[in-house]
Amino acid sequence: MTNTFREPIVQLRPVRDEDAPATLDAFRSAPDMSRQGPVRDLDSARAYVEWLRDGARRSTALSDERGTMIGLVGISVDQDNRTGWFFYWLHAAWRGWGLASQAAATVATTALRPVSEAGWGIERLELGHRASNPASGTGLPS
User: Fold this and answer.
1) In what side-by-side order are the strands of the sheet with 83-90?
2) What domains does the chain contain, in order, with CATH numbers?
3) pTM value?
4) How many helices (H) and strands (E) does the chain have?
5) How far apart are CA 133 and CA 11, in angstroms?
6) Beta carbons within 8 Å of 53's beta carbon, 6+ residues apart
7) Which residues lie across from 14 on neighbouring strands?
8) Which of 6, 45, 97, 110 could connect to 24 by a Cys-Cys bridge, CB 3.0–4.6 Å?
C-alpha cells in the first residue's frame, strides 16, 4: 500500500528495521509519546520496531519526502476473529495537518478489503482514544 497525501508530502509504506532512529526521534518529540510504548533509547526503539513487524500487527509508516518515518498507523490483528485494534502516533512536528486522519482512513480501507481484492481481510476494526487526549479522536473515520 502506497499513498501520497496533499501538502505536506507524506507517503505510507511498511515499517522497516531502519526506522528505529526516526522512531526514537518521534518518541522524544513530545512528552505524550511515552504513552505509545517503552521507547527511551536506540535499543528500545529497535525492539519497538521489531514488535511492530512481528506478524501480530500490520504497521504502516507515514514518511516524509526523504522517506523518514514521521508517524505510524498500526493494527493489532486477531486473525482467528478477523478483527483489528487501531493505534497511531505522529512526531510532534507533524501534528495539526490531519495526517493521522488521512492515514487511518487509507489503512482502514486496505484492512477491510478482502484478501482477494489486495486487502488484509479484516472484518472488524476497533479504535479508541484517550479521554485525556481529545485531539487524538478528532476527525478519525467512523
Assistant:
1) 11-14, 57-63, 69-78, 83-90, 124-126
2) 11-130 (3.40.630.30)
3) 0.85
4) 3, 5
5) 25
6) 15, 17, 59
7) 60
8) 45
How many residues belong to the chain?
142
Q: Which residue has the cell 472484518?
A: 123
Encode pLDDT of 18-75 as tens digits.
999 999 999 999 999 999 999 999 999 999 999 999 989 999 999 999 999 999 999 9
Amino acid identity for residue 100 in this structure: A
Per-position b or e across 18-31, b if 16+ CB within 10 A of its CB: ebbebbbbbbbbee
In whole angstroms, give the CA distance from residue 125 to residue 127: 7
Q: To 5 degrees, how large is the angle CA 56–CA 61–CA 12?
A: 120
Contact predicate 24/42, CB 8 Å = yes
Query: CA-based diameter of the chain, in Å?
Result: 42
